[in-house]
Amino acid sequence: MVVQHNGKIKARSKDFITTIEDIPIKVTYKNVKNLNLRVYPPNGEVSLSVPMSFSHERIHTFLIQKIGWIRQKRAEIQRQAQVPESTSQIPTEIELLGKRVILQQGNQAKLTDFNQGEGEAIRLTFPEQTSPDVIVNFLDKIALDTMKQKVPVLIAKWEKKIGVQVAEWRIRRMKSRWGSCNPKARRIWLNAELAKKPLECLEYVVVHEMLHLLEQRHNNTFYGLMDHFLPDWKQRKTLLGSR
Ligand SMILES: [Zn+2]
Fold first, then answer.
1. Which residues contact 141 (CB under 8 A, 6 or more apart)?
2. 173 Cα to the center of ligand 1, angstroms
3. What is the 191 CA–ligand 1 centroid distance (Å)?
4. For residue 238, how far is its CA from the centre of ligand 1 (angstroms)?
5. 63-71 long-range contacts, Cβ below 8 Å, gap at least 24?
6. Ligand 1 centroid, distance to 218 Cα (angstroms)
7. What is the mean pLDDT of each successive set of 10 residues along the chain, which is 243 residues long?
8. Domain 96-242 in CATH 3.30.360.10
9. What is the distance in A from the centroid of ligand 1 to the CA of 160?
């Protein structure tokens, strides 16, 4: 933006995008003395800020001189971006909430849905060229679906044991907690991230939140109830924290 004499701010219209050897470069005019060329991760976008007085020709000449440096920077960024990918190898077998998922490569065109009987492993076949991102997203979806199946079973089990009734439960994205309980509404919320934890951990959180229907606060009564109903809750809590 340009500040005019009268103090008003006028939208700058001189900015433009130019392409040098197939690389698009965003050129922005600024009240600066020097040219400032940057290449940004993760995609290697190139941006150049230039003094207001510079002509297109002068900018073009500068960029031609710098194209080698730009290419080098972009290659560096690309190499860095590939590091996490190569370390996050696709596993051949994982466990989601006590369910075994076997991953295998196949030569069909797209990710297949899985056939799954009760207690059986989920067999997931993916095409050879599938990116790890796609597989991770797909696994997230399976994890959440599995959690949606498991939660009502756990709640029914613990309603009988504890002698309370849950009126409503939901799976939510939560930043700082594994679960929460509104005793008045008898409503329990569970963090969607639990889908990626062992089943014992999900059960620990469900029991913890359900016991808040008996005791709202984290006091001795509450922990007495935890010890009584789920004697190994501390191990489960540690497991939850460590994975
Ligand atoms: Zn609590």
1. none
2. 17
3. 13
4. 15
5. 63/18, 63/20, 63/25, 64/20, 66/37, 67/20, 67/21, 67/23, 69/37, 70/20, 70/23, 70/25, 70/37, 70/39, 70/46, 71/21, 71/23
6. 6
7. 48 78 88 87 86 89 89 82 52 76 71 60 77 81 88 97 97 91 96 91 97 97 98 95 67
8. no
9. 20
The answer to whether the beta carbons of residues 89 and 127 sit under 8 Å apart is no
- Distance from the CA of 195 to the center of ligand 1, in angstroms? 19
The closest alpha carbon to 208, from 176, 185, 183, belongs to 183
Measured in Å, residue 211 CA sits from the centre of ligand 1 at: 8
Instruction: Give the domain ranges of the chain.
Output: 2-87, 96-242
Task: Give me ligand 1 centre to Cα 137, in Å.
Answer: 30
pTM of the predicted model, to two decimals? Answer: 0.58
